[in-house]
Amino acid sequence: MTDPLAQIAAIVPFNQLPEEAQHRVAEKMAFLRFTKGEVIFSQKQPAYHHLFLALDGMAEIIVQNDAGLSTVIGFRQGGEFFGETCIVEKTYPATVKVIENMTCLTIPFDELHRLWEQHAAFSAYFSRLFAARFRSMIDEIVAEHSGEAPGMDGRPFRKRAVDMMTSPVLTIAAGEPVTKAAQLMADKRVGSLVVTEGDQPVGIITERDLVYQVLAAPSSLEAPLAFPSLKAVMNSQFITLPPESCYYQVLLTMIRESARYVGVVDKGRLLGIVALTDLVRNRDAGALSIVDGIEHCRTIDDLAARATVIDRLLTAMVAEQAQPNEIAEVITVLYDRLTARILELALDGLAKGRLNPPASFCWLTMGSAGRREQTLRTDQDHAIVFADVPEEQLERVRAFFLDLGELVVKGLEACGFARCPGQVMAGNPRWCHSSSEWMHRLSGWVEESVPEHVRQLTIFLDFRGLYGDLTLASRLRDAVHQTYLRFPVGLHHLAKDDLRHHVSLGFFKPFVTEKSGDHKDEIDLKRSLLVHLIDCVRIFALREGVEETNTLARIRRLSEKGVFHDNDAEQFCFSYQTLTAMRIQENLRKAHEGSKPDNYIHPYRLSKREQAALKEAIQGIIRLQSLTGSAFRVEGFL
């Protein structure tokens, strides 16, 4: 049998141990052999008191949720460890099944603990390994209590465009007559054809195009044989995506572009096409029907009804095990459409009274909506920026936009968005300014940086243009970056404000919870944890001139710029995804029970695996706050 000492001497991190320590651990090891199809241990089985080290072969890691759906979440092969999660759990959170004959060494946990305590590099290696393994289970945390519809595919959000597309695609050359396109559709019983020039897709022609642009066109009624060319009636805005695009990216593209078909293209070659009906087959096209309904709403009451449908979609997406960022992006797009339609109705109402916008303007959405991180409906946070006008016209112009702002506030309130307790709304004169006024106000906030101004900035700085003249929002974003270049001390004040509260873990009990009151022994996932991650990432993004407002997008850009190391960026993303997933789950549970969602969670009622993930997420925020304090010279972090 192979010498254990020879094996571990070639495997990280045992090869970093002193020779004496290697000899000692080798004496404690045992060999085990497993054959293909054998289960080494099962989910929920009482844990062994040793770690497995695979020498050869391969095994798959399988997790089963409460609905009985099994998912392979990873593989282990020669040189890799498994079974480590039982260090913090009494039972295994997953099943390990051999798919190629496997030889393993077992390492007693008491011996591992001794090595961790005596050798810092050894301990650091396993800390990183265990953290990465916990992060890999984030998909299952979202779905742990999800309910799957019998007979339905519970994971459409895991599908890629290449998995959903229809292939091969029926195409027709751009130079062919319309009659040939119609005949081909009829013969093949399809509703669309991709129009090509050479091998390149240049457009799409649908049955709808033939009816409205050819048969029902006035010219066709007068001269039925004078059909236009195919190129003249096709839709040249043929949207394409790469084959690895996931379900939610296809869904968002269809929503944003009001498209019923998306081409799948790889290196210029058309592989297939995804139709709206394909999304229906893959479980849910609810978002698309909601958008269509929003666009046709004629009253605020109609829109309010649509808002409740969005709530049901949110619940369905959680049940379908969509990632938190996927959920937020889809829900944000829908709420954007809802807000835009309220603005359109408000403007139509003012126009009927012969009141039209006296200057170009842009509606700014802020807070979680500005970051594209909205899930359940929250308090309103928005503002208006309008183009500069002569001084003598300023107050008259402002009065129009304040009236518009108040109409939209009332519309959003009717749709379930509560008024902001701090009055951060476009109907408030403090949040309705000309472009020049906003830039002056911004400079004042940053230069003075008194506590009240810092609080205003944390709300304002995540703004994005939602409706109107988006160049006004773009110029304002440029002004933000220029202001912080002139007054970098403003970033210090933002950091100091966030770090007044140190996120921490307890000594005897890992989680720092409320000591009294209605939420005794609970944690506010938003105010006590997530806010600090969002704030710190924002501060780094401002320093680096990052345009994105979304937290995950900011982390990725900061990683690309070398501001965050890859390991740190991965941990910060994990922290965000974990906390957001838990927040969504808990708030949906409370809403379902008739309670008010409040972002609080009782950490000791979570499963051991969820507790371990929560602890790891908190450690990520602790690390981020430490980096922030050091980078922006905050006392206590230097």
From TrEMBL:
Superkingdom per UniProt: Bacteria
Coiled-coil residues: none
Pfam families: CBS (PF00571), cNMP_binding (PF00027), DUF294 (PF03445), DUF294_C (PF10335)
Matches recorded under InterPro entries: CBS_dom (IPR000644), CBS_dom_sf (IPR046342), cNMP-bd_dom (IPR000595), cNMP-bd_dom_sf (IPR018490), Diverse_CBS-Domain (IPR051257), DUF294_put_nucleoTrafse_sb-bd (IPR018821), GlnD_Uridyltrans_N (IPR005105), RmlC-like_jellyroll (IPR014710)
Domain CBS: 165-221, 234-290
Keywords: CBS domain
Name of this chain's protein: CBS domain-containing protein
